[in-house]
Amino acid sequence: MSASNPATDEDVSAKTPKASQINRYQRVLHEFMESNLSRAFPLNYRFTEEELSTVTPESIMKWMNKKICGDENTDMLHGDIPTPVRCSHHVLDFYKKSISYFMPNKGQVWDPDTKRGNPTRSKDINNLIKKVKEIGDTAEGEQKKRKRESISTEATPLTIPPVPQLTLPSAQSTITVPLDTTVPIHNAVPVQNILRRLVAQNTQFIELFGTFSETMKQFQTNLRINNQQILAEINALGSVAPQENAKTGNDLGTSV
User: Fold this and answer.
1) Cα dihedral sign for 128, 130, 136, 141?
2) What's the rounded Cα separation, in Å, for the pair 205 and 199?
């Protein structure tokens, strides 16, 4: 038995993937090879060693760049920072692992001079994944910072300005009664009732604007009832006055 390369054993056969995992690797390889060879293949197609030998670090990086930002010519290793970054470094790691599983020399580090070895193990591929991780970590840090600032702002107590108070006119104002100003003394009781009802009506106005506990419809109904009662008192005044005048005239005639 030939001697095994320790690095190869650790990289290749530390854990044998399950069949379901290999199927996932196969789907990634299928998509990548269609892009790499610019042609379509059946889903169950098994790529030959000759076809797999066409894979280079450059072809993998172009495909990954397209996954990252949609542009295969983006050069993230030399300052191009795409916005937004559509892939996390975890996804790129999985792509790398999937393609690596099928490489003919998957246990060998890529040699850029001889163009031999596993292209997924080139420094450029690893640096690209690291760069995406740095961008993701920076974005995540800024997001957490904004969240902390937002929470801090929400926790700051708000200064609520005082609610302006509505100043109502004093109830001690002159009330004009729509009756004849020459009211006989003996009609004071009906007039007093009218004034009381007017005061009660004004009180309802004050309560309405002070508490808003009554609806306008209810208030309108109360006003109509008060007006009817006031009119009734006015009519009562009109009927009492002739009777009182007649009684006064009889008393005068008797005394004469």
Assistant:
1) negative
2) 10
Residues 117 and 124: their CA atoms lie apart, in Å, by 14
CB-based burial of residue 140 (10 Å sphere; 0-12 exposed, 13-18 middle, 19+ buried)? exposed
* CA separation for the pair 126, 139 (Å, rounded): 20
Dist. CA 8–CA 1, nearest whole Å: 16
Contacts of 193 (CB under 8 A, 6+ apart): 233
Burial of 103 (0-12, 13-18, 19+ CB in 10 A): buried
C-alpha–C-alpha distance, residues 95 and 93, integer Å: 5
Which pLDDT tens digits describe the chain residue by residue (256 residues)?
333 333 333 344 457 889 999 999 999 999 999 999 999 999 999 999 999 999 999 999 999 999 998 888 888 887 778 777 888 999 999 999 999 999 999 999 999 999 999 999 999 999 999 999 998 887 666 666 666 666 665 656 656 666 555 454 554 444 444 444 454 555 566 777 777 788 777 777 777 666 555 567 777 788 888 888 888 888 877 665 555 555 555 554 554 4
Nearest alpha carbon to residue 100 among 78, 129, 75, 73: 129
Q: Is the backbone peptide bond immediately before 42 cis, with ω within 30 degrees of 0? A: no
Residue-wise pLDDT tens digits, 8-17: 333 444 578 8
